[in-house]
Amino acid sequence: MDDPSQRLLRRLLRRIPAGNLKTTLEKWGRLTAAQWRTIDFTQTKSSIVQMLAFCAENEFTMKHITELEMMYVIDNPNKGMWYAFQLIDPEADSQSLELTQFKEQFKSHLCELVRNVSVKIKKHTDEAVWIRIAWGDSYSRPNHLKPTYIVHHLQTPYVFVTGLSPKQRPLVSQALVLSSRYHAIKAANLSGRNLTAIRDLLMKQYQQVFPTRFPSPLSERNQSVSNPQIEREHAGHKENRLQMASETFGDGMLPQLQSSVYKLETKFRDRANQTMTEREEPFKCVVKFASTNLLESLKLCVSSGIASTPVTPLLSSIPLKGRNYFVITDNGPAPSSQMPLSQN
Amino acid sequence: MEGLSSKGVLSHLSVLAVQTKSRRNPPQQSTRVKELKAEAEALMMRREQLKAEIQTHKSLQRMRLSMDKGEEEMDEDSENSQLLQLMAKHSQLKDLLYAHHLIGGYDIIKTSLGKGVCVSVTTAYEGVYLDTYNLEIDLKPVLRITRHNVPPFIPLNELAEQNNIQTNIKAFLDVLSQHLNAHAGRKQQLKLVKERFPSVDVMESNVLCSILVLMFTVPRQKTAVLCTLNYSDHTRCLPTTVHIQCEGRTVSTDNQGPPSTVYNPRLCVMSMLSIRTLKHNKFKCPSFIY
Amino acid sequence: MGKRDVQICFRFGSGTPDMERHRSSGARTPLNSALVQRRSRSKSYRLSYRSCLGAASRLGLTPALTARRLNTSRRAPKSHNISEKVSVEQLALLLKKEWKLSYVTPLYRFRHTQMRGYSRQLSAFIAAEKHQGLAVDVEAAQGSFRASFSVIQGMTETDDDAETILIQIHSKSSFPGQDEPQRALWSGWLTCVYGNPEYLNSLPKDFTCLPLFCSSGSEVLTNAVKSWFQLTFDCCFGPLEISHTSLQWLVALWTNCHAECNIQHLKMIWSVPVVPPLQITYTVDGQDAWELWNSLRRDPQEEGEGGKDEEAGSNIDIMEVERFMQGLKGHFYRHFRLDLSAGSLKQVSTALGLAKCNGRMKISNSKYMIATLTLLTECALLKMPM
């Protein structure tokens, strides 16, 4: 085993939590039965030492180690910061793209753009295509310690990326656009540590609520007792708020988005404050909402009345547009990431 | 009532039910008389209705005639106004009918804010209801899809544009429904293959379920068969092209052909049938194929 | 002695600050240095700010002050060139470090002249604690600790304020003779800035009031220092949270400084009680925050007519603070239709400093630290037990 592979393996083994080590290695399936029996998984340190020895013994190459890393990352994707991108303007045949075609083309396009790059592509059981890129340049071999990961579902316009430096972004963009048969790609203004959440949000894989003609279960549950008149009215309001909250943010398990950021550059308007209202310049501020499950928190704000209904487009745009970064200005259409504030 | 607690609520209810039943069934004779009376009344009502209808038709005809002639003013004020009212109602009903025709088959309701409507498109495959998709559409100033749960691999916006949603929402909904139903059907087929034929290996598939590569072994001959189903028409749940590859020789009508052959869909079904007939003991009719 | 309490009230009520005061030479301990036999220790330190004010208002002598309440009006912070009064090295020790706040009841028989003795005593005390196995388990547990007391001269604002004391704990290096400056393992300071003069004057002889205690470093050492103070000066400590109102005061006081010193930004963190909890960080551009604040200040002329202040605009009223908060919340509501009043203000920060509701603060700019410390001194005095 060469030096870089050993370094990567050591780092990887340290990264995998002790509890997960056994199952991950089992899935990897590269150790012989005899080796498997020897490893003592109750001792983290010694098991790592043993693993290093076995991998050297089996003469594993970088290929095998990156395979292990990819498997671990695919199973534990919610680590780094993931950024969503959107492919735009599809070509006619983008919908009938095949995995093998995509694989070949992506690799060849990327290798044309940059020398010394190592690309590994693997399809996960949920139809997602996982791409691992280790970057090098004309003078250095690929650095496997800082790989870029890309997740893409063929036939959809969304791409999720982690560990990509600004320098490499145009290279990846071009290879992606060409191999997935689109014309362009843009940032989707959505990011988070939880890949599943941002994917579910964009792929609409969560339970959305739409108006129905059937009474909601809530009204049946709320059987009023003490003062039927008042209780009914309260229940009516409450139910209405809950319905609005659910229609805006969804129902059931909501995607675990952790934050949303708004850059506001709008006029300060207050009838009682003439000085500020007459001021020409916008009032500049940044607002960040954060929670372990932002959509759930916001939904509760609406259903409990802390946030008024109808829900402001600024908040409802998070699930509706699948975004969590907004630049808000008063004037109409602006650059792609901007969204004018509707004047009520 | 005293027995209530000892006998329980259900038995008490059944006692009450028997009581009401007996109250509802008075002696047969009077029932018969009542029935006849009611029938007579209903018939008389019907006669009145018909008379009114004839009257209306007559006046309508007269009205049309007068309108055709053009000059003859409607001097009989009362009758004409009555007619105009009727005509207005008629056109209103026609509009409603048209509206109903427009949304034909779709569950459509007003959204809570009243700015638009919410349309539901249900999907089904072989009589089994699958996912329901919803679209919230604002009506003013132009039709605009504001919210939906259609997955991103269905090109919703392209479909809306191509079918001219502004003027022909029904065409758009129909095409969308076709896409969604076809996708639901293909997805269901894939699910059924996985469930019912564990010996079949799904080598490849995608989110759109537009490509499906299956691998299975012909039991007696022990040859592996690779079957590639390509659904390039996304509005259908039948494949458009099929590749069948197998070790050594091809399972096809054309024995001289190369190991890999492209079939048209009909041939595909035929070849699948031939596989089925060959292996009916192991491969029970793979129903997903038709 | 029996009528002591009444006398006290009378004294501060009459508001004669120019009373005779004895000073010890060198550092100032603004109390009689003459030793007075204390009648009841426990009773004496319980004589708190609040009870004192309460008694006073019963006598109807301090109409403007009500017990249990922060001042409703305070002087606008002015840029102090504090480095002229306080040594730059000592100031540097107080800046850019996050301090955990506590209140301390008045210290009995504390002398600013005995810093050396206290250093020795505290070092010995910690060594004894460690010997007893009382978990002084920090990085340098092998070596022993060396505590040092020093007076930070010049942090006072009135003659009644006692000089600030700084305590540092270093580990005795196992390799003596190394010149490189040692980083303190633990540091803490006790201060009093603009302490209510009436209260300070009402204290019996031999009591020094340094109500604000700031500590930074291992919790174990903090507790050891607290225990030593309790034993030596018969005082007691308690956690000092920064209330919602105090944080709002800081928002206004700091924003008010922007005219003279760029605050960069005004950052407020709210927590909204939903499940899971929602945290809202609202960061306003410094200049814009100041312009809003300025637009909401009282009309200086109006104030002039009141005739109370010669210096127009030098006083900030709680109403102005509330209007400012309302303005900020209003702008937020207009965009998000979410009422920040439903949540609680947890943290405030600008380029001048940072304050958290759980009683932690950081001072980043020495120029305006006096205003911040004045507010915190007041909070500490209010927090003392009855």
From TrEMBL, chain A:
Parts of the chain that traverse the membrane: none
Domain of life: Eukaryota
GO terms classed as biological process: CENP-A containing chromatin assembly; chromosome segregation
Keyword vocabulary terms for this entry: Centromere, Chromosome, Nucleus
Entry's Gene Ontology cellular component terms: chromosome, centromeric region; nucleoplasm
Keyword Nucleus: yes
Coiled-coil region: none
Chain spans, region Disordered: 217-238
Subcellular location(s) of the protein: Chromosome, Centromere; Nucleus
Keyword Transferase: no
Polar residues bias spans: 219-229
Family assignment from sequence similarity: Belongs to the CENP-N/CHL4 family.
PANTHER family according to UniProt: CENTROMERE PROTEIN N (PTHR46790:SF1)
Official protein name in the record: Centromere protein N
Species: Solea senegalensis
Automatic annotation (TrEMBL), chain B:
Cellular component, GO annotation: Mis6-Sim4 complex; nucleus
Keyword Transport: no
Subcellular location: Chromosome, Centromere; Nucleus
Principal subcellular localisation of the protein: nucleus
Keywords associated with the record: Centromere, Chromosome, Coiled coil, Nucleus
Family annotation (Pfam families): CENP-O (PF09496)
Coiled coil: 33-80
Family, per entry: Belongs to the CENP-O/MCM21 family.
The protein's name in its UniProt record: Centromere protein O
TrEMBL record, chain C:
Subcellular location(s) per record: Chromosome, Centromere; Nucleus
This protein's UniProt keywords: Centromere, Chromosome, Nucleus
Top-level taxonomic group: Eukaryota
Cellular component GO terms, alphabetical: chromosome, centromeric region; nucleus
Entries under InterPro entries matching the protein: CENP-L (IPR025204)
UniProt cross-references to Pfam families, sorted A to Z: CENP-L
Family: Belongs to the CENP-L/IML3 family.
Name of the protein in question: Centromere protein L
Biological source species: Solea senegalensis
